[in-house]
Amino acid sequence: MTSFSYLTVMFAPAKRTMAMTAVIGTVMLASPLVPARAQTNTPVAQSNPPAGQSSTPAPARQTRAQRKAETIDQRIAALHAELKITPAEESNWQAVAQTMRDNAAAIEKLAADRASQQNVTAIDDLQEYQKFAQAHVDGLTKLISTFQTLYNAMPDQQKKLSDQVFQHPKH
Known about the structure:
Blueprint: H1 3-30, H2 33-38, H3 64-83, H4 90-116, H5 122-153, H6 156-167
């Protein structure tokens, strides 16, 4: 066996592993965009609504944006309770809560923009993923800034509680 063929045989599993890692990594990078692409705000029309029911959507039905707002508000309320925010910390907390809402709105806007696109190329898909990743980084930067103000004003006992909450999130 020549040294070249020996090297080829020895490193073939490594090449396969690297190739599979690249494929899996690409799929995982693109996967967060799949739900945004599949979801639309177009109501599904019923061809034959049941007797006594109208084919128009019920006014109590929530839009995706309303459900998202509820979800972020629920997370904010849960975090407020977990961190045991005091009335004295409320103004700093409101800045944190608003940052969380703004970050969620930015991601939601990107998802809506993405859902409206058609004939997306692989390059477009990767660029969209980059926009999502950048929005996450920008949002995290803003959140760290507002949370740091709150955290610095907390007594040591509450800081320890905050450390535990963030190390072991329930959500």
